[in-house]
Every structure is written in structure tokens, then in C-alpha cells.
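The following block was generated as part of the benchmark described in Methods. Ligand: DLL.
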Amino acid sequence: MIWNREIECAARAEIKDIQWRRLRKTVAHVYENVPFYRKRLDEAGLLPDGNWTLKDFERLPFTTKEDLRQNYPYNLFAVPMKRVVRIHASSGTTGKPTPVGYTRDDLDMWSECMARIICMAGGSDEDIAQISFGYGLFTGALGLHQGLEKIGAAVIPISSGNTEKQLMIMRDFGSTILVSTPSYALYMADMAREMGVKKESLKLKLGLFGAEGHTAEMNREIESRWGILSTENYGLSEIVGPGVSGECHRQDGMHINEDCFLPEIVNPRAGEVLPLGAEGEMVITTLRKEAFPLLRYRTKDITSLLAEPCACGRTSMRMTRVRGRSDDMLIIKGVNVYPSQVESVILGMEHISPYYQLVVTKKGFVDALEVQVELVDDSLLDRFSDLERVENMVRAKLHSVLGLDCKIRLREPGAIERTTGKAKHVIDLRDKQ
Ligand code: DLL
């Protein structure tokens, strides 16, 4: 089902027109209400009533996470607090989480974006949706919650953790949709196997997964473990939370809610806008937000845009699976390495589980990488020659894909930390040495 056919299937010219009108409106709104942006717009010569084009808009300096920190907590809010009805915050591994405010209208826009994404994946008012994201400042749970309620699905707000209970509820309450991170979906599937919960005893049919990257290989693994269609959706708290884009049942890129978010792809180093289809860092301008509008926000997420209409009938621009965050990219002996490349190599390898970690250390002036992978079966640990064979196999496969010789460490089953939220695939020990 298409939730909002008028927008989701609109002609490109019409979408461009909506974007342009809303961009002008957003610029006028922040010029009026956010001193930080008024200064920047003045400097770039982009005045609310001025005669400028989308090309000129590309001259505006990016908004970065650092700008958000420097305006902590509320200096980038564009409405009086009286109009703010919700505050979330970005997870932020370093420093304080940065708050993001929503007016009532912002919440409506957010729910609308979520409703579209859930419907395009195949969700409907017939569904019972188990939300296994953590509720709280994190936007994942409430974002999906609002959208699912909007389309009329029955929501089970179980939150994350307590995996045995999750599985009991899933079976007894007949959940048909699972909402979580892909890594938690994988961990839950492992637990289900351990507890003897058979997928045939469940009603689950659809996964709405997001909040972290995962490869196509991992997606297939999750689909086969659960016997479901696994779709992914994308977003970030600074922009709205989930709801920026999502996959339809064709699983061929994530449809961007372009009437609300204007995407650009830029070179992560020099910052220039790249041609359509090129891979680079996604930069987003919000087009319909009142409380916390952002112009040209650098997401650090590496992806590319697909402009062709999708076989599902929607005309929106799609984004490809996120390869990684620009700050997660490692440079080892001059070779660029993303954790996702390691994931696609080890997935489906004989004797190796889908859990892995990259440990980065510094040897003198150069970075060194150790790839830790987990064995499926601990009986292998007693057979040295088999262990050596598996290790060589992993090293050779990684070498052929990455062009890099890395150290491999095989670990016993269960040794790599499981997560109920976002997985930590990179352990960076460079500062601790
Ligand atoms: O993770 C929002 C979200 C919640 C999206 C639930 C989808 C589902 P943050 O905690 O601020 O917000 O983290 C945002 O997570 O910049 C990406 O690096 C990463 N991320 C989110 N979705 C995906 C995805 C939420 N589908 C950061 N693929 C983003 C890859 C993703 N990375």
C-alpha cells in the first residue's frame, strides 16, 4: 500500500517545486529566528527575499556536529520553548548529547514520514508490531511507535533488552513486525534457537530494522534465520530520527522523504557537491521542521543517490545502503577499510558466526588492524590444524577483498559482545596505547 500516493508518486518536477518552496520558507524561518544562521546566510548572501538559486545554496557552509555542540543546549532552536512539545537527543559517543526539539507540527510531519516508510515495507493496520528499540532520548522507539499507531497497527512498546521475555511476548502476543537494530534481531534469533523457539511457531513476517548499518549479506542471514522480509530504514536524531528514508518491499535502496528532507552528496574531504550517483557523504537540509531546522547538515554517512523510479511505483530519490560513517573508515597501510567490508566477507563463511570486531592499534606511526571473528562451534578449538585452516581461509578472503593482510583472531562462540542496541564493530585502542 502507498500511504501518500500524491507525494510518493509525484512527478519529479512537482517534487522539485515543493522542495524549492519549502527551502525558501525554511531559510526565511531560520533567518528570522536563529542568530547563528542569520549570520551565515548574510555572509553567503542568501537573504530570505534575495534572488538566489539552489546552486547558490551550495555555497552555504555546512552545519556540523561541532556547531550543535557550540550552541548547546537550545541556541539553534527556532521557536520559543512554549511551542516545543518533545525533546530527544542524539546519542553522541563523545561529549554531551545534543538536544533536538519538536513542535506539534514537527511530530505530525515525523509520524507522516514513518507511516509512509512502514507501509512501503508492507506494514498495515492488520499488524502487531513489537518495538524492541530502547525508549528514551533515542529517537528510534518513539519514531516508529508514532508511525505504527498512525497507520493503525497494534504497538507493543516492549523496549530493548530482556531477550527471553521478548521471545515469549513475540510468540504469545503474535507479533507480526519486529522493530529493532539488525544486530539485536540477529542476537534475538540466536537466543530463539537456544531456547528452542521455532520460527514456525511465530507469526513474524516483517522486520523494520535501522539505526545502524548492515550489509546485504547480513540482511539475508537475518531473513533466513527468522523467515521474514527484512527491510531497513535510515535517519539521525539531529535531522528527525528514523523517517528520513526507508526500503520498500522491493529492497532496492531507501526511498527518501524528499518533500521533508533535501539530500546532497558531497566529497567528505573537500566538501564539493558530487554528481548524481557518486558515492560520498550525505548532507541534509530539513524542509518542514519548525523547532530544530538544519541547513546542510553533515551526516558523516557514506552513501549514494539513485534517481530512477523504483519498480514499486514510487518516484522518490533513493539512497543506497550506508557503507559506513566517514569517521568509522580506517586507513590501514594506506588502504581504506570500512567495517561493512569485513562483514560482507565473513558472512556465510564456513565455521564463522556473523559476530565480528575490528581492533585498531598503533605500531609506531602506522595503524594496525586485528579482525576478530567468532567460531560457530567450539569443538574446533581442540583441533589445532583445523583452527589454522579456518584462520588462513579468513585471512585469504579478507586479503582478496580488501587488498590488505590483517591479523585474524579466532574467538570461542559467544566471546564477542552481543548488543540489544547498536553494535560496536570497531574497538579503537590507538589513544590508549
Ligand atoms: O539511529 C535514528 C534511527 C533510529 C534510524 C531507528 C533508523 C531507525 P542516531 O542515534 O542519532 O539516530 O544515529 C544516527 O545512525 O548518522 C547513521 O550513522 C546510523 N544509522 C541510522 N540508520 C542507519 C541505517 C538513529 N539504516 C546514525 N544504515 C546515522 C546505516 C544508519 N546507518
